[in-house]
């Protein structure tokens, strides 16, 4: 199932999917179907993205892949493959440039899955940005949230926030 939504109404309607209160990719379940992540386009209006949203592919219970990645408690981890597979990058602090910071993901690294395995409380959320130096806000991932994207996402910096 692929749902395409466009325009400013899409950004407003799907903004809840990128907030801590909303269920993130691959954690929300409807019956035996797994719901993918929402990602709204690439043009920017303030911090809202405008464009086309892809709300994943629903998979029947028997076809749901098991999560395979590991992420140390307190870390934020991303993978190049779905369900925690492929190349992994992991941090326990902020990083303004994933390609040149303390942890270096290869250039053009596209994120296909993520896990915020941080502690709850202060600085438990991770704000993710498309570009280095915290530019082009992408979304916020709360502690305990993990999931896979329908397609790889460009992310290049992040910081822990309250």
From TrEMBL:
<protein>
    <recommendedName>
        <fullName>Peptidase inhibitor family I36 protein</fullName>
    </recommendedName>
</protein>
<dbReference type="Pfam" id="PF03995">
    <property type="entry name" value="Inhibitor_I36"/>
</dbReference>
<keyword id="KW-0732">Signal</keyword>
<feature type="signal peptide">
    <location>
        <begin position="1"/>
        <end position="25"/>
    </location>
</feature>
